[in-house]
From TrEMBL:
Residues 423-575 form the RagB/SusD domain. Residues 1-23 form the signal peptide. It is found in: Cell outer membrane. It comes from the Bacteria. This is RagB/SusD family nutrient uptake outer membrane protein. InterPro entries: SusD-like_N, SusD_RagB_dom, TPR-like_helical_dom_sf. Gene3D superfamilies: 1.25.40.390. Belongs to the SusD family. The keyword Protein biosynthesis does not apply. Residues 94-235 form the SusD-like N-terminal domain. Keywords: Cell outer membrane, Membrane, Signal.
């Protein structure tokens, strides 16, 4: 059977284009399987659509691929990957992330660069293809449709570039890949910021709205999505460029809330933004569509499925993926004797416990009929084993039941409340009882029709409220900030809860703002960015983490493998 020339070309191009950013791809010649070449392989409307979509799948993968999620979360005060009796030590690489002692020789410093530029080059390649179409009617398309596709690809590329800017600051702006034999020079952070900003502004009026697209909006960059990326860009502008853009952030955020870029609404249930209904939720500004039978990157090993204790799938009744492997857990709030740590940062579960009636504090439990309760796994996790007998989740280092606790140490088979002799609590001294686990996206049982059906909500309407609240807070208007935060927070507590902020905003402080960002966006791959924006990433203290020597760790080094491939690239300061 003859191979598909388009698929062969695109797969080979993807690998080669990635190299063109860093080293340059010296040979773009193709082995032709028929007469279709790179200049004329777009023959039908379906060809154009496939070309348009290619970068989206890679970009969905990049939410966790290339260690992007790990670097955002494990370098922060939120998540950890400790040495669990030999498991997950992995040469100390995760400890270096926790302690901010990474080096350019650590593979993940290259992996994240390559993962994100893989998306940039794919998007740019497709942009060149689509921008080269002079007569869209040949593909049964209108000029408006084609321009909309081009605009969406530019927004997708902007999303990838924002993440590159956030990680590395001194990045290469890629606008052309066809025929390129070497990578470009790095732009200044200010130049990169200006490029991303202009690309989003240029694309915005050519995009559809979620109102226009209706139930077909998931996976599509809309006007609301582009405006939301401008909110992200402006919120962090002082960090990226040295210039405060909070006023611009507030303007775009208010416009989104007021409906200028589409009709959005907050969900009334705390779990709805992550549930199987979220593809059509008005809270999802941009989401990557997922399903059990096809793609579901947030549920894979690089992200949430490795944020579960051993045998947790048996507790869920979801056994399609086999057993879990606890790579990620929340950092502890208490020492081995259950005494709360004194530092202000971190301690995520304790930050939730500050408001005792938080509905998310319940232990995660599947209720049947595609419903669940609670957001955390803690304590014993009972289930019925294959023999039909009552059992409880155990680890792989001993036959004893696991008792999951907000502590890190060698508890082994010690019963809850029992004092243990080993008082060491650090990244190198954990067991499978150590740490609690958040479950944001549900794991419904294997026989549930809606298992693993949630979209990945990359941009939620709640983020716009929180960004605007931060802008109001920084401008000295605590009352307005409290109102905005409470608009989201009220779904986390029973009606009439005393946990809502007072109307005057008097409870809000810098620390409370940071804590609230953590509570709402726990394990959503943004904590490092928030800590940097508030000036505490390199200066702060949290569990088993002292302040860094200086702030050069606010950005990652460009990996040595990347530097070796392109003599034009210069290493980031401090490395």
């Amino acid at each position: 059977m003859k191979s598909n020339p388009i698929s062969k070309y695109m797969l080979r191009f993807a690998a080669c284009a990635l190299l063109s950013v860093t080293a340059g791809c010296t040979n773009l010649d193709e082995e032709l399987y028929d007469r279709i070449t790179s200049e004329n392989f777009l023959q039908t409307r379906d060809d154009v659509t496939r070309d348009f979509l290619r970068a989206f799948e890679h970009s969905y993968w990049s939410i966790q691929g290339g260690s992007t999620f790990m670097l955002q979360e494990n370098s922060s005060d939120e998540m950890m990957t400790p040495n669990r009796q030999g498991d997950w030590f992995d040469g100390g690489q995760f400890q270096r992330v926790h302690y901010h002692t990474w080096t350019p020789q650590d593979g993940y410093t290259s992996d994240a660069w390559n993962a994100l530029y893989g998306g940039v080059t794919l998007a740019t390649n497709s942009l060149e293809d689509l921008e080269g179409i002079t007569d869209p009617t040949k593909f049964d398309m209108t000029r408006e449709e084609l321009d909309g596709m081009i605009a969406e690809l530019k927004v997708l590329r902007a999303w990838l570039n924002i993440r590159l800017l956030d990680f590395y600051r001194n990045i290469v702006i890629v606008t052309k890949v066809k025929g390129q034999t070497e990578g470009g020079v790095q732009a200044t952070p200010q130049e990169a910021f200006a490029f991303i900003e202009q690309e989003l502004k240029d694309a915005l009026p050519k995009l559809s709205t979620n109102t226009t697209l209706g139930d077909n909006v998931t996976g599509r960059w809309t006007q609301g999505g582009a405006a939301a990326l401008l909110v992200r860009l402006y919120l962090n502008a002082k960090v990226y460029t040295g210039t405060d853009r909070f006023a611009d952030c507030a303007t775009f955020a208010q416009d989104i809330i007021d409906g200028k870029y589409g009709a959005y609404a907050l969900e009334s249930r705390w779990d709805a933004p992550f549930d199987y209904t979220n593809p059509t939720s008005k809270e999802t500004i941009f989401g990557f569509p997922g399903s059990f039978a096809q793609t579901h990157w947030q549920y894979d090993g690089g992200m949430y499925f490795w944020m579960l204790p051993n045998l947790a799938p048996s507790y869920f009744g979801f056994t399609d993926f086999g057993n879990a492997n606890p790579k990620y857990a929340m950092q502890p709030g208490r020492d081995v004797d259950s005494v709360e740590y004194s530092f202000a940062l971190g301690k995520p579960f304790i930050k939730f416990q500050k408001y005792k009636d938080d509905l998310r504090l319940k232990k995660y439990k599947n209720l049947g009929n595609s419903k669940r309760d609670g957001m955390f796994l803690y304590g014993y996790l009972p289930y019925t084993n294959p023999a039909g007998k009552a059992d409880t989740v155990r680890g792989f280092k001993g036959p004893y039941p696991l008792f999951l606790r907000d502590q890190v140490g060698k508890f082994l088979d010690a019963k809850p409340g029992t004092k243990i002799a080993d008082k060491v609590s650090n990244m190198n001294n954990a067991d499978n009882n150590s740490g609690l686990y958040p479950v944001k996206y549900p794991y419904y049982p294997s026989d549930d029709a809606n298992k693993i059906s949630s979209a990945y909500a990359e941009v939620r309407f709640a983020e716009i409220y929180y960004a605007l609240a931060e802008c109001k807070y920084r401008a000295g208007n605590k009352a307005a900030a409290a109102t905005l935060l409470n608009a989201v927070r009220k779904r986390n507590y029973p009606a009439g809860s005393p946990s809502l902020y007072k109307a005057d905003g008097s409870q809000l402080t810098d620390q409370e703002m940071l804590d609230e960002w953590m509570r709402e966006f726990l394990a959503e791959g943004r904590r490092r960015t928030d800590l940097i924006r508030w000036g505490v990433f390199s200066t702060g203290t949290w569990w088993d983490k002292k302040p860094d020597g200086d702030n050069h760790t606010d950005i990652f080094p460009i990996g040595q493998n990347v530097l070796n491939s392109s003599p034009q690239l210069k290493q980031n300061p401090g490395y």
